Amino acid sequence: MERIHDWDRWIGTDEAGKGDYFGPLVVAGVCVDAECRDELLEMGITDGKKVSNSRVYKLAECLWKHYDHNIVVEEKMPNTYNTQYDLLKQRGENSSRMLADLHIKVIETLAKRKKVKHALVDKFPYSGDITQLLTRQDIKIVLETNAERDVAVAAASIIARERFLTGIETLSNRYEFQLPRGASHVVDAGKDFIKLNGEKSLRNVAKLHFGTTQSVLSS
Q1: What is the pTM assigned to this prediction?
Q2: What are the tens digits of pLDDT across the range 161-210?
Q3: For the segment 83-116, what is each residue's pLDDT rounded down to a tens digit?
Q4: Can you name the CATH fold of 4-212?
Q5: What is the DSSP string of the chain?
Q6: Domain boundaries, the chain
């Protein structure tokens, strides 16, 4: 089986916001070659979930400044996310299908732009769909658990995290209400948000299929 260390350049993808009640779902992809691999390692690129938010912003700024052509981002803000989720549910699918579609779009775009034939993706439900579709397009996919150990996936995790943080802050500013991150301890924030903005506005800031919504809407 062809392995990552045999590749001279490849795409790594990762997501952010999947487990957060508020804010967007983001998938980012970064293309890495032998030359920039060492530069990214020297920058201290690591899994974006394991460093502070301030560090995420700093590393992302550096990545965008020097490697913007190597980066692709796809995101679903909550309103669009909820609309698409409703359509998926009608087909018996769920948010993992949406996540797979975003990974596929990111990889397809970067593969065409950078003429790359290899990609590394962290395993998740429906990730097999990525392999099935993209292999037919002559893009070789490796699915691994804890793929953030790879520098391309780690760089993608930094970009995805930065875009998620920016997205949730944009929504917080729009509604003049600080939306918390995560999925636990957010019920009170959801109730307070509704008091200020109305129940209909919740779909613009939150992923409504989360069980949290039931608690938020209960009296």
Answers
A1: 0.94
A2: 999 999 999 999 999 999 999 988 899 999 999 999 999 999 999 999 99
A3: 999 999 999 999 999 999 999 999 999 999 999 9
A4: Nucleotidyltransferase; domain 5 (3.30.420)
A5: ---GGG-SEEEEEEEESTT-SBS-EEEEEEEEEHHHHHHHHHHT---GGGS-HHHHHHHHHHHHHHHGGGEEEEEE-HHHHHHHHHHHHHTT--HHHHHHHHHHHHHHHHHHHHT--EEEEE--TTHHHHHHHHHHTT-EEEEETTGGGSHHHHHHHHHHHHHHHHHHHHHHHHHTS-PPPSSSS-HHHHHHHHHHH-GGGGGGTB-TTSTHHHHHH--
A6: 4-212
